[in-house]
């Protein structure tokens, strides 16, 4: 019998799940909860590409469909996917513990409870309630971020306790963030020094397989020191990365993740070793899953197909078969985007390592300086057998895109 899945709110890279599953003879139905999509991330989805559009979540009707799995197609679908899988009696993660996988404060509490390295964290609300705990964090630098968010949205760096206190009043209180949640609480956390890694795992009960491991390279843009520059793909079999993998597996258990995808960001701290920043039970966002198709075997998308159709995950971690990078273009100044001209497009497509590029903005749009993933104007993904050639090609990409995005600066 043909396998069948219900994909909930596929946005961003969640759109890549359907074609891979359909290519493996898996029926893909879809449900859109567009009322809780503040940034319109679901607007770009072509419903006609799915086998069926589910418009009403009537459990009796869904049970008759005999689904094999419910998949969260983005952060917007995690909570609902947990709930539906439970109500349909399908493999999934308990809706009773969804908070461990959505609420960043609960995540850190879970790490602490299970004896794992964690980030000192406390909550603060609009009137400053909770700030009295600031003196309990023994550090000099701090991070402020929403309890629920994604894409580095509304993440702020503070150099002192006074900076934290002064920043509280100017936070985007009451605004709806990209996950459809109201910013009614923010986290204040100790700033962890170190290198940032991201791991993608797939889980089936007691079995956890590492599908991809990458390293973020970030830099300064304006007042934000955490703007993404690159994502570098690493080898899961690198012995030096074993402590990171072991910690990620333990953190996965601490968050009560029993089924499906895990996307985890962590720091390798000289003082603490690996320590989780946050985790999500959905596909790696952006263009990375497309790059993984060229660089890892089996790829992230391949393992989703195996989980659904064969009810298993690979026994061994994925292998790195080609060097890969995602380049995030940083727009350093406010600018009006006049489009990618034919000459620049031709130059980009002649670069040997280039797989593809994606412009996130529309022609004629006035661009702010890049502050986070939502203000990154262009992503480029590249792969090459030779790391030196790959780096050379990335420099050429940056040169071309600097010409594209800095043509018409907007006066202050």
TrEMBL record:
SUPFAM superfamilies: Glutathione synthetase ATP-binding domain-like. Residues 108-309 form the ATP-grasp domain. Keywords: ATP-binding, Ligase, Nucleotide-binding. InterPro entries: ATP-dep_AA_Ligase, ATP-grasp, ATP-grasp_PylC-type. It comes from the Bacteria. The keyword Ligase applies. Coiled coil: none annotated. The keyword Nucleotide-binding applies. PANTHER family: ATP-GRASP ENZYME FSQD, FUMIPYRROLE BIOSYNTHESIS PROTEIN C. This is ATP-grasp domain-containing protein. It comes from Photobacterium arenosum.
């Amino acid at each position: 019998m043909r396998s069948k899945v219900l994909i909930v709110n596929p946005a961003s890279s969640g759109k890549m799940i359907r074609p891979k599953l359909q290519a493996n003879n898996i029926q893909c139905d879809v449900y859109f909860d567009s009322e809780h999509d503040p940034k319109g991330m679901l607007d770009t989805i072509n419903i006609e590409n799915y086998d069926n559009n589910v418009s009403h979540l009537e459990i009796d009707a869904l049970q008759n469909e005999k689904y094999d799995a419910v998949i969260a197609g983005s952060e917007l679908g995690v909570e609902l996917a947990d709930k539906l899988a439970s109500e349909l009696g399908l493999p999934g993660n308990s809706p009773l513990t969804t908070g461990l996988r959505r609420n960043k404060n609960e995540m850190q509490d879970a790490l602490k409870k299970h004896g794992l390295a964690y980030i000192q964290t406390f909550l603060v609300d609009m009137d400053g309630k909770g700030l009295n705990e600031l003196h309990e964090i023994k550090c000099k630098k701090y991070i402020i971020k929403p309890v629920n968010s994604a894409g580095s949205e509304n993440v702020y760096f503070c150099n002192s306790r006074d900076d934290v206190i002064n920043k509280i009043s100017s936070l985007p209180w009451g605004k709806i963030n990209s996950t459809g949640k109201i910013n009614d609480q923010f986290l204040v956390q100790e700033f962890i020094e170190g290198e940032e890694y991201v791991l993608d795992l797939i889980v089936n009960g007691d079995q956890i397989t590492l599908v991809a491991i990458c390293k973020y390279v970030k830099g300064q843009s304006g007042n934000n020191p955490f703007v993404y520059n690159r994502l570098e793909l690493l080898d899961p079999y690198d012995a030096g990365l074993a402590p990171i993998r072991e910690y990620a597996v333990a953190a996965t258990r601490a968050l009560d993740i029993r089924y499906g995808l895990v996307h985890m960001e962590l720091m390798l701290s000289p003082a603490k070793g690996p320590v989780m920043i946050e985790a999500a039970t959905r596909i790696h966002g952006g263009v990375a899953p497309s790059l993984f198709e060229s660089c890892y075997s089996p790829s992230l998308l391949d393992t989703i197909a195996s989980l659904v159709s064969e009810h298993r995950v690979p026994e061994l971690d994925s292998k790195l078969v080609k060097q890969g990078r995602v380049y995030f273009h940083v727009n350093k100044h406010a600018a009006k985007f006049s489009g990618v001209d034919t000459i620049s497009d031709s130059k980009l497509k002649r670069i040997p390592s280039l797989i593809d590029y994606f412009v996130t903005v529309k022609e004629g749009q006035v661009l702010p300086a890049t502050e986070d993933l939502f203000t990154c104007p262009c992503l480029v993904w590249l792969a090459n057998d030779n790391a030196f050639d790959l780096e050379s090609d990335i420099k050429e990409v940056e040169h071309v895109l600097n010409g594209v995005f800095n043509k018409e600066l907007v006066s202050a």
